[in-house]
Design goal:
With about 170 residues, this protein is of the alpha+beta class. It is built from 4 helices and 8 strands. It has one domain: Alpha-Beta Plaits (2-Layer Sandwich).
């Protein structure tokens, strides 16, 4: 099974503190809900996309295993975001937590019953903060729709996206 989720945050959580601690707690919460961590990329410090004056993000990608189908997994991710206080306001707003379903066994699916979402994630090929950590956990990954390799997608990224691996 090849299920990948994106993890991100750029605001400190009132209970859990800095974004890395919040995201670690979110992984634990997912585990409690039947979403087991297989492997996680290193953490990355990344500039907001699109560029803005908001705080930089902490991002990672996790490969997970679960008996949940894609609909139930996406609902679980949204449920954990809600539990952690995520408020959906405007697109690209700062956030306490962001959990994205990036790829589910190379499937293509459009979810309309829980809000418009698409797998593979519709903008993953345009984001260094997704592709760099995804390459860490899945160096041979190919985009399910285009067939492009992860290295080709990284080479084609728009300029100016800053991302640095954290120690």
């Amino acid at each position: 099974m090849s299920i990948y989720i994106g993890l991100g945050a750029n605001l400190p959580h009132p209970e859990f503190g800095p974004p890395i601690r919040t995201l670690r707690r979110a992984l634990s919460s997912l585990n409690d809900r039947g979403v087991r961590l297989v492997r996680r990329s290193p953490w990355y410090r990344t500039a907001p996309v699109p560029a803005s004056d908001q705080p930089w993000y902490v991002n990672a990608v996790a490969q997970v295993a679960t008996g949940l189908g894609p609909d139930a997994l996406l609902a679980t991710l949204h449920g954990v975001e809600d539990l952690f206080g995520r408020v959906r306001s405007v697109r690209d707003a700062p956030r306490l937590i962001d959990l994205d379903l990036l790829d589910y066994n190379s499937a293509h699916k459009i979810f309309n019953n829980i809000g418009l979402s698409i797998i593979p994630h519709v903008r993953l090929q345009d984001r260094a903060f997704v592709l760099l950590p995804l390459r860490d956990v899945a160096p041979n990954w190919h985009h399910p729709l285009t067939g492009a390799s992860i290295d080709a997608l990284i080479a084609a990224l728009p300029p100016g996206q800053m991302a640095e691996r954290l120690p």
